[in-house]
From TrEMBL:
GO CC terms of this entry: cytoplasm
Protein name (database record): Chemotaxis protein CheA
Residues of the HPt domain: 1-101
EC number in record: 2.7.13.3
Sites bearing Phosphohistidine, chain numbering: H44
Region (Disordered): 123-149
GO biological process, one term: chemotaxis
Start and end residues of each CheW-like domain: 403-539
Length: 792
């Protein structure tokens, strides 16, 4: 019976928490039958369970509420504010009783008859809802949170067990990282590395599963808000339209519990100090109903919660006068303060803009405690104040005790962590596709014709940039404003699974860190915040950048020649030409053995596919060929060249138009006449259907029963486009064009007798002697070259 009772109490408390907001939303829309049915089912379930659990007070209260709701369902009674308030009162009393039963305390001895009697009371106007200032704060303005949500069925586990599991998997991740580092420092055994990869996959799966047990939807934060807004609005005579967004965002359970109190205090302040009464709003030309909006979203490794209202905002001059009156500030110091410094006074203890002390606020104990609580969990609070128009408060709290993929970067002799999800691209500063320039004291990085604002991590953090012999690393980082930027660091040393924990409030207040982590070397490391770094460096956002670019274009005028970035290169035949840079996907060196011809057309084998070669050349004198990978959006082609020279700006229309073959004309760049490649003619000359590889011999894997051969070697060869046969055929003859791959000398001799080529493999990285002609089985380049040589 004790287990049944505890299960009943737990389910009752969970459902009550979810239904408080549903009752308020139902009051705003009495025609919502689904919400009414959900509320009725709750009381009906409580009443039915109380009989055999011997809970007479629960049964009496729920039965009374059920009777009233039944009348409303049948149409004999309306859901007026008085009835809704009485139903909420019954729910509050059931919650008190459930809490007392849960902790084993004596039941409160309040008189239940008053609550049950309130259910029978109606408004003076009968079934019509109240009018005037005391009406429901959300009357006619429903709580917009995506409709009614069913309470999910769950299995309850002790929180201590979940914490123990999470701590255990965090230690497993750190141990896995340490083992990975040890394996990298020693000559690896392929079988040991394969076993480690399986172990790593299992740890990752377990990590993800256990992490989900700690996560809760932000709905948990929002459940009590509608009821609070309703009650405070009725008490203060204010009409409020509540908007809730982002309830499906998930965050750590501990963070949910720690953010509840600060969020509650902010909402109460917004209703009391911010949103005006209907009469005052009408006099100001505002709608009588104020708007309070709560929005949650995930930004990188942080949860951002915004609380905004369209009230009167904060009068910073009142704050200054209060501070002067309390001897916290002199008038001379106040005259030198910026608007932001004046606004920051709201976080000083003992200061309030309230004219009088009420039961809700005005005692000067508020925003200072809110900021202290937020910073204690590694979060940051910021204000966006618009006097007379409203206030927006933004809480940024970390996803604590989560495990994320991260990069270990080095700058100024120290190591920092960067979330891998925030990094778009990594390249070195000696890359031919990268140009770095300084314009007006700011750095601009141009990568494949795309310009990015650039910062050096050492400059943002106030560190010395140490000299280094190797190239610096440039990371393209995705910022919170939506505009990627380039960040220079000394190097990217490693990538690991990182256990994220909150950093100290002093560190988090800097705005450039999202927490701390403990990598496999055991030394604490700070986690960089991509959006915080962009803000600290004052990088432009989307709106600023677009406005600046538009102004520049308008200033230049329509008569100016339109220029586009172009790649200047040298053809294999010696001509120097231009091609529009936006067509070039990448420049790379390709093994000459990968080029060939099929059906009279030249091709190159890239990533297991046959890619057409635009100029028809397929044989070369050098082992490696420089090539442009070009694409028209859907079709890809390879353009072999002698050399890539540089990136220049060329007119979008050539200086001399001369359509001939794949050329569109000639442009003069830096006094040099350069032919311009015509992309239309270039892609029009490509085959309309996919190329097929020429007929060639099969790869016969003699050790077909071996696990490594089946699971690793065979898939590799198939991806490279080879036909694979497992084991020597018993009945079918071996074609002389076939290539036999084997690790045994006996099979190799038998294959040679059959007249086919042989590639012999060995398991050791080192040959057994100078006469050993075998190939190490994990040397992919040598393996592919040997197969290509055997097939000739």
């Amino acid at each position: 019976m004790d287990d049944l009772l505890q299960e009943f109490i737990a389910e009752t408390q969970e459902t009550l928490e979810a239904l408080a907001g549903e009752v308020v939303a139902w009051e705003a829309d009495p025609g919502d039958r689904d919400r009414l049915d959900a509320i009725f089912r709750f009381f009906h379930t409580v009443k039915g369970s109380c009989g055999f659990l011997n809970l007479p007070r629960f049964e009496r209260l729920s039965h009374a509420a059920e009777d009233v709701l039944s009348e409303i369902r049948s149409g004999n009674r309306s859901a007026d504010p008085a009835t809704v308030s009485a139903v909420l009162g019954i729910m509050d009393r059931i919650a008190e009783l459930a809490e007392a039963v849960a902790v084993g305390a004596a039941l409160p001895d309040e008189n239940d008859d008053l609550l049950i009697g309130a259910l029978s009371a109606r408004d003076d106007k009968g079934s019509a809802p109240e009018e005037g200032p005391a009406a429901s704060p959300v009357a006619g303005q429903p709580v917009r949170q995506g409709g009614a949500q069913a309470v999910p069925r769950t299995i309850r586990l002790p929180l201590s067990l979940i914490d123990q599991l999470m701590n255990g998997v965090s230690d497993m991740v750190l141990a896995r990282n340490e083992l990975s580092r040890q394996l990298r420092e020693r000559s690896g055994d392929p079988e040991l590395e394969s076993a480690f990869e399986r172990l790593s996959t299992c740890v990752a799966d377990m990590r993800d599963a256990i992490s989900k047990t700690r996560m809760q939807r932000v709905d948990r934060l929002f459940t009590a808000i509608p009821r609070m807004v309703r009650d405070l609005g009725r008490e203060l005579g204010k009409r409020i339209d509540l908007v809730l967004e982002g309830g499906d965002v998930e965050m750590d359970r501990e963070m949910v519990e720690m953010v509840v109190d600060p969020l509650t205090h902010i909402v109460r302040n917004s209703i009391d100090h911010g949103i005006e009464t209907p009469e005052k709003r009408r006099a100001l030309g505002k709608p009588e109903t104020g708007t309070l909006k709560l929005e949650a979203r995930q930004s990188g490794n942080q949860i951002v919660i915004e609380i905004s209202d369209d009230g009167q905002g904060i009068d910073t001059q009142k704050l200054v006068e209060k501070a002067i009156a309390a001897d916290r500030l002199t008038r001379d110091a106040a005259a030198r303060m910026s608007e932001a410094e004046k606004l920051d006074l709201i976080f000083h203890a003992g200061l309030s803009t309230a004219k009088q002390i009420t039961a809700i606020s005005g005692r000067g104990v508020g925003m200072d405690v809110v900021r202290a609580n937020v910073e204690r969990i590694g979060g940051v609070i910021s204000l966006d104040n618009q006097p007379g128009k409203g206030l927006r408060i933004m809480l940024r709290v970390p996803l604590t005790l989560t495990i994320i993929p991260g990069l270990i970067v080095r700058a100024g002799g120290l190591h920092f962590a960067m979330p891998r999800a925030a990094v778009v691209e990594i390249l070195h500063d000696n890359n031919e596709m990268l140009r770095i320039a300084e314009i007006g004291g700011a750095k601009i990085a141009t990568i494949r014709s795309v310009r990015h604002s650039m910062i050096d991590l050492e400059d943002v953090l106030g560190m010395e940039k140490l000299p280094q012999s190797s190239p610096r690393t440039i990371m393209v980082v995705r910022s919170g404003t939506g505009v990627p930027y380039a960040m220079g660091v000394a190097a990217v040393d490693n990538h690991e699974e990182l256990v994220i924990r909150p950093a100290s409030p002093l560190i988090m207040a800097s705005g450039v860190y999202a927490g701390m982590t403990l990598p496999d070397n055991g030394r604490p490391m700070l986690l960089l915040d991509a959006a915080g770094l962009a803000n600290a460096a004052e990088l432009p956002n989307i709106a600023d950048d677009c406005a600046r670019r538009q102004a520049e274009e308008e200033e230049a005028g329509e008569a100016a020649t339109e220029m586009v970035p172009a790649l200047r290169f040298e053809e294999l035949s010696g001509e120097r030409r231009l091609i529009k840079l936006s067509l070039v996907e990448r420049v790379e060196d390709i093994d000459a053995d990968l080029f060939g011809r099929s059906g009279g057309r030249a091709f190159v084998r890239l990533d297991g596919r046959l890619v057409p070669v635009v100029n028809g050349v397929h044989s070369f004198d050098t082992p490696h060929v420089s090539a442009l990978r070009i694409r028209d959006g859907a079709q890809e082609a390879c353009y072999p060249v002698a050399a890539v020279l540089d990136i220049v700006d060329m007119p979008i229309v050539p200086d001399m138009v001369a359509m001939q073959g794949v050329l569109s004309g000639v442009s003069v760049i830096d006094g040099e006449h350069l032919e311009v490649v015509n992309p239309f003619a270039l892609f029009a000359a490509l085959p309309g259907e996919a190329l097929r590889a020429p007929s060639r011999g099969r790869c016969v894997l003699a050790d077909g029963d071996d696990g490594w051969t089946r699971e690793i070697l065979a898939p590799l060869l198939r991806q490279a486009g080879h036909e694979v046969v497992l084991g020597l055929p018993d009945d079918a003859p071996v074609d002389p064009r076939d290539i036999v791959l084997s690790s045994g000398p006996d099979v190799a001799k038998a294959a040679e007798i059959l007249g086919c080529r042989v590639v012999q493999l060995r398991a050791s990285p080192r040959p057994s002697g100078p006469q050993d002609g075998s190939i190490y089985r994990y040397d992919q380049d040598a393996l592919m070259a040997a197969i290509a040589g055997a097939g000739r």
